[in-house]
Every structure is written in C-alpha cells, then in structure tokens.
Amino acid sequence: MLAGKGRMHDLLQKAAGWMLREAGKRDEARLVGYLRQLWNAIPATMRRYACEKLSREIVESLRQESITVP
Questions:
Q1: Are 21 and 46 in contact (CB under 8 A)?
Q2: Residue 15: how many CB atoms within 10 A of its CB?
Q3: CB 24 within 8 A of CB 55
Q4: How crowded is residue 31: how many other Cβ atoms within 10 Å of its Cβ?
Q5: How far apart, in whole angstroms, are the C-alpha atoms of residue 14 and residue 69?
Q6: 45 — phi, psi (to 5°)?
Q7: pTM listed for this prediction
Q8: What H or E segment, with its residue span, contains residue 49?
Q9: For a 10 Å CB count at each end of the chain, is N or C smaller?
Q10: Any bridge partners for residue 8, and if so which?
C-alpha cells in the first residue's frame, strides 16, 4: 500500500482520486467540502483525479484557500 517513507503508491492515489471524482458527480458540494478540509493533506495525484470534473473556478478557489491557511 505504501511506497516508501510513508507515501501512498501512485496507483492507489489514482484509484482514490477516481472514487472521489465519481462521488463528486452525485454530490459536488460534499466533494468540494471534503477537498477544502484536506487539500494540503491529499497527494497531488489524488487531487488531480478528484478535481477532473470540477469547474476551473472551483479548483482555483480551493488552491487559493489552501495557500492562505496557515
């Protein structure tokens, strides 16, 4: 499951991101809330897959919020 030094294997990141994306198709607000809470803790690959169906404005908003959070 892990790929050295506590990092999640790339294929698992893709799979988890895919599941988040699919869940977001049914409840986008819930996905956005989840991503907002954990943006900095989620690996980049997982975020990329989870955000595929979200609008550019929403993704940019999530990025900006994560930068301003200490």
A1: no
A2: 14
A3: no
A4: 21
A5: 26
A6: -60, -45
A7: 0.81
A8: helix 44-50
A9: C
A10: 2
